[in-house]
Amino acid sequence: MRAPPFSPAAPALPDNARDLLSFAGSTVDAVMISVPDAQGRFHIAYANPAFERLFGWTSEELAGQSPDLLYDLGVHPGAVDRIQARLDRNSPVHERMVNKRKDGSTLWVDLTVTPITDDTGRCSHAVSIRRDVTHEVEADRDRQAYRDRFNRFIATVNGVAFVWRQPPDSPGHFQWVSPKAERLLGVDGDTLLSTPTALGLDPVDAERWLRTLNEAGRNLTPWRFEGRRSGSAVAKWVFASAEPRREPDGSASLAGILFDVTDEREQLAVHKSLLESTRAIYWEMADSSCLRFSYVSPQAEALLGYPLDAWYDENFWAGILHPDDRDWAVAFCQRAAAGREDHEFEYRVVTRDGRVLWLRDVVSVTDRADGFLLQGFMFDVTGDHQRREELARKGQLLAQRETRYRTLFEAMPDGLLLVDADDTIREANSAFEPLLGYPPTVLIGRPLADLLVEDEGEPADPSGGTMAESRPLLARRDDGTTRPVTVVRRALSIDGTEGAVVVIRDRQALEAKNAALVEMSRRLQREARRAEEASQAKSQFMATMSHEFRTPLNAIIGFADLMHEGVHGPVDNPRYAENIAIIRDQGRHLLSIINNVIDAAKLTRGLTPEMTLEPVDLRALVATALQTAEVQDNGRHRFVNALDADAAWVRGDRRALRQILDNLVTNACKYTPPQATVRVTSERRNDAIALVISDNGPGIPAHMVSKLTEPFWRADDVMHAAQEGAGLGLTICDGLCTAMGARMTIRSEQGQGTEVTVHLLSADTTDPA
Question: In this predicted model, what pLDDT tens digit does every residue of 55-85 receive, in sequence order?
């Protein structure tokens, strides 16, 4: 557009307008001063530099021209008359409109026109200020377009859109809810804005809604929710999701949508019921190369324990396979899939809690445009395998029993016969050959009466009731002579057929054996009495000698302490002081050994110490024991107190528990290298408390563990042999545990350390550990 012609003469500025020139020259807004003519029409008298930068015209070019040239009358057709009318009334103008530049382009301006009057009240000039607001208008248009698109989107989405506002230090609330709330939820938006709990959720779900939504707002994390509405005819189940953002004032807001998922839930319930009724895991896999599932039914978590999300990780299935089945099962699956072959196979998996299950996987392969889809059902066939294994085990057991029976049958020194209901011999063992001279095969099929006679020479009646008891008879030998025997008969049923087992013993040999057994029993009783008397004498001797040693030792230790502390004056020679310290320490060590010997002697003689069973807090005892051990250890080891506060109160004798702790912690320090860790823990096991003292030392071979509680026994390796002691610490601990009604177990593995567990009564129960 070409610039309009201009009048060469510019109207003179009134005196009261000249004070504005300094302000107009320095402001960034476009300022123009217009002066009215005799008819009241305004003409431009001045435009500041900012006006030239914004519109392109200089003040000289605009001088004398009408301000109407700036208005885009195509956009604002009545603008000129409207503005002139307000100025005629000396009223200010403030409008947002489109103006034209010198080059014909347009822009949006924020226009303010202020009429200035003289002393007579007549308008002497008008000051207009224009500010470019094109970007603001375009931004408003964009925002309006976004709002229009958003409203159209909200209208098409079958859900309730909402904005949740979450202040930093108070509960959140709905800031905006779309109009569909009343139609989809039966609750109008205004009610939800004032009362967030009006959503009508079940009490538990309502608490979870507010808690999780507030947490998501405070933590700026995405939010997902599904819950049930109570007493609602519509939207019985709802699902909501929202994304957070931080607001300028520091609060948070979450924008989201809430859907009615009642139909989906009902369909899901039907599908779930169908899937659960199959007692199988339905799955789909689109890519067998990485063994990644694209769908897994909920039965997977119920059967194997792993959360469903984990099943969608790459190679998850291969990871849960039993190590012995992993390679062949993966290779078989991938080979069958590559060949587009339906397949079925069985393998083992390890559940989340460590159990091993057998699964039968029935798989179909479906070709698709983008490759193929594997679909299958996993059935738990652990029971079938267990039954097959049980049948095989029982078959093997029956075979073993048959072998043992035949071995025992043949190994019996007495003659054994199996007879049927007619007393016909069906089986005979090989003892009859040395006993009566008959090979077993000769006896089979013969009547039992042919073999036995009464002492008077009459045949014995096989069906006589007296033969059901042990009785003396004569047995015919193959050479026609007889032999005194004792016969025992017991009725039995074999494979549903009535019969009996008949035992024929050599009476003379039996009497000789009985006499020998009586003599042996008497001899063993005499030896046992002598051994008991020797053991009592030994224990008495040890206890007496230990008491005799302890009295002078206490004196030696006492005087060594006096000399070491310099009670009666200093020891001038430092070597003497060192020697005194050695005498004192060795004396204490020897006294400790003697005390252990006395305690062990009492326990082995059945003399349990007097105990007071009462509730005891292990935390105080363990803390004291470890503090003492740290002082004596001089920093050689690391001590860890990891007692469980919920497994600290036990029922026991306080002194005995302290002695057990001291012995076990000292043992752990003695038999572990420097910088090793000694750990004390506890845990509740049903109605018992397990107090565990463990170390990460060298341990001992498993076959030696059972010997650790034997008196005076010590391992013969280098580390154990180098340590001082009599080998009585664990003996005493075991005896004290027994006296308290507790139990001590030891587990050790060479190279892995040792763990000693004291199973104690819980303070709130009187049942044994």
Answer: 999 989 998 898 988 988 888 888 888 898 9
CA distance 85 to 113: 12
Structure tokens given for 310? 């984990």
Q: Diameter of the chain by CA atoms? A: 175
- Helices 574-604, 729-740: axis angle to 10 degrees equals 40
The residues near 405 (Cβ < 8 Å, ≥ 6 apart) are: none
Angle, in degrees to the nearest 10, between helices 729-740 and 654-670? 150
DSSP letters along 345-370, please?
EEEEEE-TTS-EEEEEEEEEEEEETT
Query: What are the tens digits of pLDDT across the range 621-631?
Result: 888 888 888 88
Q: How confident is the model at residue 304 (pLDDT cuts 50, 70, 90)?
A: very high
> CA–CA separation, 81 vs 88, rounded Å?
10
Percent of all residues in the chain with a pLDDT value above 90, rounded to a whole number: 15
Mean of the pLDDT values across residues 529-542?
A: 67
With tokens 């700036």, the residue in question is 70
Q: Which amino acid does the sequence have at 71?
A: Y
Q: Which residue has the higher pLDDT, 482 or 17?
A: 482
Q: What pLDDT shows up at residue 133?
A: 93
DSSP secondary-structure letter at 477? -
pLDDT of the residue at 530: 79
DSSP per residue, 440-455: HHHHTTSBGGGTEE-T
Q: Are 159 and 257 in contact (CB under 8 A)?
A: yes
So what's the pLDDT on residue 732?
79
- pLDDT tens readout for residues 694-710: 998 888 887 888 778 77
Provide the token pair at 459. Answer: 């045949």
Question: What is d(CA 661, CA 624) in angstroms, rounded to the nearest whole number?
Answer: 10
Looking at residue 625, its amino acid is: A
Helices 654-670 and 618-633 cross at an angle (nearest 10°) of 40
Assign 383 to helix, strand or coil: helix
The 10 Å Cβ neighbour count of residue 88 is 12
The values of phi and psi at residue 455, to 5°, are -60, -25
Pull the structure tokens for residue 446: 């013969």
What's 608's DSSP letter?
A: P
Task: Quote the pLDDT of residue 2.
Answer: 34
Q: Rounded to an integer, what distance in angstroms lies between the CA atom of residue 183 and that of residue 187?
A: 8
Question: Which helix (DSSP H) or strand (DSSP E) does residue 109 occupy?
Answer: strand 106-117
* Residue 619, C-beta contacts closer than 8 angstroms, at least 6 positions apart: 643, 645, 648
The residue with greater pLDDT, 294 or 724, is 294
> Taking the model in full, what pTM does it have?
0.31
736 contacts: CB under 8 Å, gap ≥ 6? 603, 609, 653, 656, 659, 660
**Site of tokens 């709002």:** 147
DSSP state of 40: S
Question: What tokens appear for 743 in the block?
Answer: 């139990």
* SS3 of residue 558 by DSSP: helix
Residue 466 has what pLDDT? 43
CA distances from 587 to 550, 557, 574, 582, 595 (A): 10, 6, 20, 8, 12
Query: Do 381 and 373 touch, CB atoms closer than 8 A?
Result: no
CB 554 within 8 A of CB 587: no
DSSP state at residue 702: G
What the block records as the tokens of 748 is: 């050790």
Structure confidence at residue 413 (pLDDT): 80
Number of C-beta neighbours around residue 302 at 10 A:
11
| Cα separations in angstroms, 744 against 6, 14, 440, 613, 669 | 114, 113, 55, 17, 19
SS3 175: strand
Placement of tokens 């039995």 in the chain: 492
CA triple 620-624-630, angle to 5 deg: 145
- Per the CB < 8 A criterion, the answer to whether 380 and 352 are in contact is no
* Tokens 């190994």 sit on residue: 411
Percent helix, strand, coil in the chain, to 5, is 45, 30, 30
Question: Which single residue is written with the structure tokens 């909200």?
Answer: 154
- Percent of the chain scoring above 70 in pLDDT: 80
